[in-house]
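Bench notes, afternoon.
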Amino acid sequence: MRIGVDLGGTKTEAVALSPSGEVLARQRIVTPQGGYEGIVRGITELVAAIETRTGVRVPAVGIGIPGSLSPATGLVRNANSTVLNGRDFDRDLAEALGRPVRIENDANCFALAEARSGAGQGVPTVFGVILGTGVGGGIVTGGQLIAGRNLIAGEWGHNRLPALNTADLKAPTCYCGREGCIEAWCSGPGLRADHYRATGQTLDAPAIAANAASGDAQAEATLERHVDRVARALATVVNLLDPDAIVLGGGLSNLDHLYDQLPEAMRPHVFSDVFETPILKNRLGDSAGVIGAAWLWPEDRS
């Protein structure tokens, strides 16, 4: 049996998988807001609850987080849950759980799950995309996660938005401190902020999409700008990686127009006379990350 944990900004979920990938138990809690120690305690209690339900104690646990570990220091970096940054999270969790842990970026966990048992199953190379509170990505080839020498493979969201046009000239500041990151433009908060700058209306992505579907020209224009930006950004990934499939996850992956409009919007920016890469909706929903975390250990160690 394997156990994986997905630590999110609002919810934390744990799942137990059989060796074949069958879900044996699942439990979700509201992510503790009492600081770093509360997060460590919450994960420890969640794992204990799963093991009580299954009657099995696993020898190791996989953890997905909204950041990554520095190969230089071993400390968490680049987490948009900023309370984790600079913390020795794997050591602290291993001590609290009394066993080894393996920590990976949540977008990598998403990509691994979708490549192994989701929309990208059987596809040689999958680029898994998170379009949600943040913008991230993960690369899986031959069923194996590609983490990279610096443990940042797939982090397309913190490149600058390419091929700027007049609508992009006032670059927003990203939480990472840089200006004009793809994440600052293309995430859910980025979409909301762009709509506010253009209209003065404070609406989230589902409301903007609903207004556009009702014929609201301003909402339609916001979605058009967003599709164009995502397309330019993803085209650079295709030019570099040329994956066999792109799988979208995160809250914005529920915007159905993306699957219709992105391929055509990307085509002019792809350095090829053909562009046939499918843009796929995830199959595992918001549980993909936790399933990928459970797969971080390469074999069943129980």
